[in-house]
Amino acid sequence: MAELARLATISVEEISGLKGRRGAALKKAGIETVADLLMHVPRRYIDRSRVEPMALLPVGSEVTVIGKVTAVSVRRPRRGLVIVEATVDDGTGPLKAVWFNQGFRERQLPVGTEIALSGKVERFRGRPQMKSPDVDVLSADAETLRTGRVVPIHSSVGEVTPGWMRRAVHNALLRSRPIPDPVPAEILERHGLMARDGAFADIHFPEEVDRIDEARRRLVFDELFRLEVALAIQKRRQMHEAKGVAHSDDGGLVGRFVAGLPYELTGAQVRVLEEIRADMLAVYPMHRLLQGEVGSGKTVVAVATLLRGISGGFQGAVMAPTEVLAGQHFLAVSALLEMAGMAPAAESLGMDSLFSTGSGPGVRMALLTSSQVLTNFAAEASRDEVMSWIGDGKLDLVVGTHALIQEGVHFSRLGVAVVDEQHRFGVSQRVTLKEKGGDIDPDLLIMTATPIPRTLSMTLYGDLDVSVIDELPPGRTLVETLWLGRTEEGEAWAVVKEQVGAGRQAFVVCPLVEESAKIEAASATAEYERLQSVFPDLEVGLIHGQLHSRDKESVMSAFRAGAIDVLVATTVIEVGIDVPNATVMVIEDADRFGLSQLHQLRGRVGRGEHGGTCVLLAEPTTPEGEARIAAMLATTDGFRLAEEDLRIRGQGTVFGTRQSGVADLKLADLLRDFETLVDARREGFALVDRDPELAGQPQLRAEIRALLGDEVEWLFVS
Ligand code: ADP
Ligand code: MG
User: Fold this and answer.
1) Residues 635-688: pLDDT tens digits?
2) pTM reported for the whole predicted model
3) Which of 183, 370, 406, 558 is the most buried (most CB within 10 A)?
4) Does 339 contact ligand 1 (Cβ within 6 A)?
């Protein structure tokens, strides 16, 4: 008997069959412990009772047969062609199998090997044959572990074959069982979950195929439950152990600000502001993710959030991922403040700002990036002055890049921070900001225009509260999306000319170049030159990531001012560019972009009253590329696209980049196992509510620590 936590400390090399070379191969592939090995579950199963006898194979249908290799040969009839032929017999056979240009089959299938072949049956010269069937090697030596009715097929790992894996797992189970259950019995009962010990036995060596699903559901539950319990503890600590601010509900500035807007807030904005208000009034620091499509009105919500803090005498910060974006935020926020009559008096001029209503000192704000320093009250302010005003509290609000605010700035009393992630995330930012407010933890609102499927906001970002603005301000028009092949690009340019003729502007997004930003810039430059002759009468501009940020900004302001008709761009424009007069976007080789990127890009048009058109120029060469184009044509709903993206790419690539327990999901497939995820989350959070330190669940606690490892070490330091 061994608990999973303990199995996570025993090396796979301790298992007989895995000493030495094979064990090392497994370790290299990340299967380091016996627990890892037990979680390497079969890739598929073959049900012997449904295997067809070779004598009776129905021609034309897909079947699985099991037999022993009785002969194997290889021929090279001409250059570039290798034919491997094997004869397989199950006692009723024989059956011939052929593979073309899969020379390795000869080595894979020595005479005597027992294999399962899956494929389509044909008749060749009167005899049954399979062309290029899938092969599962059951065993090289036709011995034990294949007496059961269901044959598990574990995927091979490095040089360790499926048969060998099967035997190793068998040995590991012999050594480990019974595996005790750490999940409270009432939870298992509530969700009809089988015992853990049986689940491990059934997933690897099921007696009946219909046991597999339940075994899998149990193990998936365990995996997600561990994660959710960890997230629940993390969240609880954020709430109960941090020194947050209970902001005042007076919020004088908030009411004035909202009343001063030239439009009514949407229902979604009102709801979200209320969620934020409740967080800010509480003593714990807010950790809230604000999701909303581009143009859904997040900025207004962010400003109201900041003003609630500022009303109570705290400072606010806005952090943007790029300098260009920080500049845009500064402009947008100052415009909103002016609109609401909250711009401060212009100090160096010694007179009131044009827009100031004179009621109160106004909100003093600065932009701080590595290339720019601006304020909304002093015509000339040096970097040093701005820094000291942040430190002594003269400034109410600072807008800057993530990096700058985190590394260079000391606030006198930072009470609320808005982090604009656009579509990048980093937990680290949340953590380091903590020390910025002196002895308090500021309230944090993280904004993103990337719709995050619920599967991810419950796992990857599972310690955040989530608010969604799921409604666009009235009057926004839908973007029409077209798909044209490369040879039809003339039609795309015709749309551009027509729109520019009507006074509008266009983006042309250049093909994605993976190799380097330099090469990408070069190819954008080449495309820019080519398009100048396509549009001889139009003003064509160019922007790419290799330009100095000052030059980028001047291109963008020329485009905003209407001095550029057609802006040739790389994906630098995917983030935060807001030019309502731009109504057309042509995306070249659109199939090569990720779906969320395409969605972000498309969000750049249709922002004004004139509607928008997005032309995808693409000749997809992969099924994924095709699926992405189809999804873009099918919907403009960011959530649906995000789920589709997850489906196309698979969760591995989505999680791969983040350090989080989620990166390690071995069994769960968040799309398929969504219901189990919901159950695991509810139970995990409820358990931590009842027993915050898991004092009554030592085994579970040990298991979380052992299996989630360093990623949750924060759980155990207090
Ligand atoms: P986001 O930051 O989510 O991309 P913005 O806050 O920039 O969106 O809003 C996009 C545009 O919609 C802005 O021009 C803004 O003034 C306008 N807007 C925001 N909220 C409303 C509303 N409730 N009614 C009408 N227009 C709005
Ligand atoms: Mg608070």
Assistant:
1) 888 778 877 877 776 654 443 333 344 456 788 887 788 899 899 999 999 999
2) 0.69
3) 183
4) no
